[in-house]
Design brief:
Largest sheet: 5 strands, antiparallel
Helix content: 40-55%
Radius of gyration: 32 Å
Strand order of the largest sheet: 2-1-8-9-10
Number of strands: 10
Shape: flat
Number of helices: 5
Order of helices and strands: EEEHEEEEEEEHHHH
Strand content: 25-35%
């Protein structure tokens, strides 16, 4: 994982969990077991309270009386031991005091935080909602596509229930129903806006007609007075 922090001051800091790292950084700790995998947890949920934290855990291959195990008949009839999750280190990549100078943060080349005025924006949430909800002339949102796929499949399988239809394209019925409600709400909003636009157009046309009639009346009055 490569974490790149850009500061408004011009400073750029990069953290790389792969470069110059020992293959067994926790070899001498705890039960002295072998680390079979390492977990890196980048805690953006703690950004505003603690700064940018990287939590590191390692998985111990040692087997003792505390080791959990489970059976998977497709692999083996005997219980298979679980690797123990061990605490490794907490690394503070950006302190809370440095947050006001952050311009943006990238992880493996993808921007996940950017600054807008005094605020830091969660790009993960933003792009997820953009993907689901935003549509224009060139782009159809995921929610819009879900409704299109549902309509197609419903026509193709008229005897199937909504639950069966939504399962065909990988959506739980509850998720599909939420999308359906959200899309219907947008349609109602658009209808109200269209009615307001039509009402405004009628009012404008009436005003223009009244102004034309008023101007015609003034012209006739001037002509009458001129003849006198």
């Amino acid at each position: 994982m490569r974490v790149k922090v850009f500061y408004q001051s011009g400073k750029i800091t990069e953290f790389d969990t792969g470069t110059f790292c020992s293959s067994e950084p926790f070899k001498g700790e705890g039960k002295n077991g072998n680390n079979i995998t390492t977990e890196f947890s980048l805690r953006f949920d703690l950004l505003e309270t603690e700064g940018l934290m990287l939590h590191i855990y390692w998985y111990n291959a040692i087997i003792d009386e505390q080791t959990a195990a489970s059976t998977d008949a497709s692999v083996s009839e005997r219980p298979i031991p679980h690797a123990g999750r061990e605490p490794g280190r907490f690394v503070r990549l950006v302190s809370k005091d440095e947050l006001t100078d952050i311009a943006k943060i990238e992880v493996d080349g993808e921007m996940i935080v950017w600054r807008q005025g005094p605020d830091l924006i969660n790009a993960i949430k933003f792009y997820n909602q953009e993907l689901l909800c935003y549509s224009d002339a060139q782009t159809v949102s995921v929610n819009g596509r879900v409704m299109g796929i549902y309509s197609y499949l419903k026509n193709a399988h008229p005897l199937s229930t909504d639950e069966e239809i939504s399962a065909m394209f990988g959506y739980p019925l509850s998720a599909f129903k939420r999308i359906q409600e959200q899309e219907l709400a947008q349609a109602v909003t658009e209808d109200v806006e269209d009615e307001e636009t039509s009402s405004n157009d009628v009012s404008n046309e009436t005003s223009e007609t009244d102004e034309t009639e008023d101007m015609a009346g003034i012209g006739a009055l001037n002509a009458f007075l001129s003849n006198d």
